[in-house]
Amino acid sequence: MLYRKTALRAAAPVAVLALALTACGGGDDKKSDDNAKSDAASSQAKPKEAPALAAGESTTGKVKEGDGTVTYDVAAEKVDLATEAETKKLVSDPKRAEGLVAATAHLKYTHKGGAPLTDTPDAPDTTEIYADGARGGLLIGAAEDAAGCEDKLDLEGWKKGESHVLCETYLVPAGAKSLEVHWAEKDGADPAVWKFPAK
């Protein structure tokens, strides 16, 4: 039976940068210049966030698979949204899915380098889905049954040059305006991000 891993995880709080507006008038020009230089130095120290990828665009990443490392090209192709009624059938307790829908991200992984896999791939394990900036709740077991998705348990022996579509399903709020698929080489690494409209 399909079930949710745990209660929906709360998204991390969003830090808001507040800009102080000052009134025009007699002020200390040197102080203003110093503040401007300080602000410029701060902005140079912060790395620029990578632009989001479009559906089907790929990124390359190296993933530790067993005793070796595999280089993958990864492309998020689409996100399928279920209806609220369909979603309630996917969970063990339909009341816990009130106001939520299942979002299934389809990612195409192409083995570009490294030894053939000797076990199930770990590459899809860092896939996450965000709706309107908040991380959804992982719905375990739903993706393998979704149309167009392969079961990673069947992929032992995956060789260089082979491509497979692996999916992850998350519960997100019904009526979300935008969806993002995040994928990283490993936990804690900066993810590649694909943006999709929530249709």
Chart the SSEs and their pairings.
Blueprint: E1 3-4, H1 29-45, E2 58-65, E3 68-81, H2 84-90, E4 100-113, E5 128-131, E6 134-135, E7 137-140, E8 163-173, E9 178-183, E10 192-197
Antiparallel strand pairs: 1-7, 2-3, 3-4, 4-8, 5-6, 5-9, 7-8, 9-10
Structure characteristics:
globular, 199 residues, disordered N terminus, four-stranded antiparallel β-sheet, six-stranded antiparallel β-sheet, mainly beta
Could you characterize the architecture of this molecule?
The protein is built from two helices and ten strands. It has 199 residues and is mostly beta strands. It has a six-stranded antiparallel beta sheet. Strands 6-5-9-10 form a four-stranded antiparallel beta sheet, with no helix packed on it. The chain is globular, with a radius of gyration of 21 Å.
Quick summary:
By secondary structure, the chain is mainly beta. Helices cover 12% and strands 36% of the residues.
Low-confidence stretches are: 1-48
Shape: globular
Number of strands: 10
Strand content: 35-45%
* Elements, N to C (H/E): EHEEHEEEEEEE
Averaged pLDDT: 79
Largest sheet: 6 strands, antiparallel
